[in-house]
Amino acid sequence: MRTIIRLTVLAMVLAALTPLATSAAELQPGGSFVDDDLSAHQGAIEAIAVEGITMGCNPPRNTRFCPGDPVTREQMAAFLVRALGLPAADTAGFADIGDSLFAEDIDRLAAAGITRGCNPPLNSVFCPEEPVTRGQMAAFLSRALDLPAQDGDSFVDDAGTTFESDIESLHGAGITAGCNPPANDRYCPARSVTRAEMATFLSRGLGLDVETPPARPFILDVVGRNGWEAASPRGAFTPHEIERITIHHAGDLDGLTGPAQFRSWQRWHHTLGWADIAYHFIVGRDGKVYEGRTFEAVGDTSTAYDPTGHFLIVVEGNFDVSVPSETQLEMTAQLAAWASLQFDVPVATMSGHRDHAATSCPGDNLHSLIVDGSIRSRAEAILSLGGVTLDIAE
Fold it and tell me: Are 83 and 77 in contact (CB under 8 A)?
């Protein structure tokens, strides 16, 4: 079996030396996934997508890669089975994989001698949902790629670990440099591997062409929470899945504007018992976009509607008495386009706060531009060109 694996890997490496059918020039802006823009690993993610090693993380659409999520052991099995084309195999007898979507991949990996289990010396279970550590990853790859043993001691933090020799093999093959650049004298064997990092390790190990897709035509700079000196959230959030886009407005509070205004909103919202500022993003009067609460959490409202599933954008100003600026309208459209792409939500779901509750929000002069389709048309035009990348400053 090891000979088969070695020949399979050799064939893949030789194939990688020929031009890929899809070149960077032919890739769509942003590439295969909507959530890896600006990632240092985007080219590697695209490489393993082109080879069919990954499909994505949100089946059946698979528009997302979830680059920051840890790789689980069952996902690792799927990556390696697809990468090496491992054949079907009899059950390996692990007692804990019956409910795993990747049970067949785990059996194939075990039959190829790439995994033994997670509870030595018995090895009766696989621990499919546990994250893969960097040490475990070294063992998986050194076995899968049949890497030769290496002399030396490249890292100061792996002495005496179960995976020390595998880590050295990985380093000798040029698959890892370390975890603390530029010194790279540490490997961090106990740290979990993210899906993005795994893409880079796989692409190096398989010799794949790494081609970064063209950038999306719109890059929206966002002032992060630190930039407007937001306080930390208080209390727990309620998670949700975004299903629609809802626009709010908010006027001056005590004559303030910009970050001072937003901090006042946040303090007020905390007094209401809310965990954070109510909105996911703020479009300031200055035309800048500011990061609010995490979009993974339900927003809050003092009116009688349930904001679960709503992507909340608040535009600074009182648009019952004033008119949003051209820049504010453009930033709102770009945020809507980004949300549409990220969450697979049609721009047509865009509405105003008053469409869900008894309120004048977001003001006549902003709501009319939602009703007549002006903002929606802008967002759809942005999407037709390839969409938006958010660049949130830390």
Answer: no
Q: Is 182 left (phi over 0), alpha (psi -120 to 50) or beta?
A: alpha
319-358 confidence digits (pLDDT tens)? 999 999 999 999 999 999 999 999 999 999 999 999 999 9
pLDDT of residue 261: 95
Judge contact between 213 and 29, C-beta under 8 A: yes
Buried b (16+ CB within 10 A) or exposed e, 137-152: bbbbbbbbbebeebee
Find tokens 């499919």 and name the residue: 128
What is the sign, positive or negative, of the torsion defined by CA atoms of 93, 95, 101, 106? negative
Is the pLDDT assigned to residue 15 strictly greater than 80? Answer: no
296, pLDDT greater than 60: yes
Closest C-alpha among 53, 64, 40 to residue 205: 53
How far is the C-alpha of 278 from the C-alpha of 300, rounded, in Å?
5
Count Cβ atoms within 10 A of the Cβ of residue 309 and give its class: 0-12 exposed, 13-18 middle, 19 or more buried: middle
Show Cβ contacts of residue 260 under 8 Å, excluding neighbours closer than 6 positions: none
Does an H or E element contain 44, and which? Answer: helix 42-50
DSSP secondary structure code for residue 10 in this structure: H
Residue type, 2: R
Q: Are 243 and 345 in contact (CB under 8 A)?
A: yes
Task: Give yes or no for a contact between 24 and 215, defined as CB atoms under 8 angstroms apart.
Answer: no
Cis amide bond preceding 121, omega within 30: yes
Three-state secondary-structure class, residue 234? coil
For the stretch 196-239, pLDDT in tens is 999 999 999 999 999 899 999 999 999 999 999 999 999 999 99
Taking the C-alpha atoms of residue 293 and residue 311, their distance in angstroms, rounded to an integer, is 11
* Residues 301 and 307: beta-carbon distance below 8 Å: yes
Non-local CB neighbours of 227 within 8 Å, separated by 6+ positions:
259, 290, 291, 393
Q: Where are the domains of the chain?
A: 2-206, 218-392
Can you read off the two tokens belonging to residue 368?
């009319």
Question: pTM for this one?
Answer: 0.86
Q: Which CATH class is domain 218-392?
A: alpha beta
The three-state secondary structure class of 388 is strand
Instruction: Kindly calculate the radius of gyration of the chain based on its CA atoms and give it in whole angstroms.
Output: 25
Measured between alpha carbons, how far is 370 from 361 in angstroms, rounded to an integer? 12
